[in-house]
Amino acid sequence: MLDNTVKFPTSVVVPLIAAILIGCAPAHRAPRANLDSPQEGMTPAIHSYERGVACMSSNDWDSAIIAFSDALRENPRSTLAYEYRGCAYAIKGDFDQAIGDFTKTIELDPSNGRIYCSRGSCFRAKGQLESALRDVSEALRLCPTNHIAWEERAYVYIMQGEFESAISDYREALRLDPSSSRAHNNLARLRATCPKAEMRNGKEAVAEATKACELTGWTKWNTVDTLAAALAEAGDYVQAVHWQAKGLEMTGAPEEARADMQKRLVLYEQEQPFREEPKE
Length: 280
Hints:
The protein has 280 residues and is mostly helical. It has 14 helices and no strands. The model is unreliable at 1-16 (pLDDT under 50). The N and C termini lie close together (6 Å).
């Protein structure tokens, strides 16, 4: 028996988590230079922490984990070291380790809503949707202006089949940050491809997808892919085929995503819209 919940392709789960976590990561000044050895007055814990920040800045997740682990051996109460290490673990797809680090951070700093959002993202990736919803809702209670938390809760609602709630959360995220290409894109995709007919709106989907493409300079395969789906929902199959072909010409899409894009191109050539698959 089918329900209205949506299955996310495995090729997009970790990139989605990475985008959320990078947005949630603590704001920090640029890493200090010349970190081969501690600078004058720098403790071993601070030196290791600074090395970790530098590694995060260069997307060297493995080295960042080692550096933050060194920092935590010196200072086991460093909330930022736990938080950064949790982000690195999560971006690598090690969600259990990430949840452990975020949980420790919450124990040390229970009023930091950002951490609840990060841990909620990991619960979502593991399919533990009730835990994810609880954490992200707590993040919003603590900081209702966190637009990333509104986006994250919308993801959870989509996976639970609560599409109307997801639309509401995306709109709130965009009210708080109209420049979020991710929120424009995801709202457009939901309005274009939702399994539930009454949640689809081709005109709104095209407008939101176009805005996402404009914000990313028409250079991102995923926003162009969404625009094609929106155009198909609106009945403009000529343009849907055009933009789907453009998306396939772009670099950066995982092989699984490219295969799915090719299937959608065939649908549009046959003048059929694309629908996200309900979960069995």
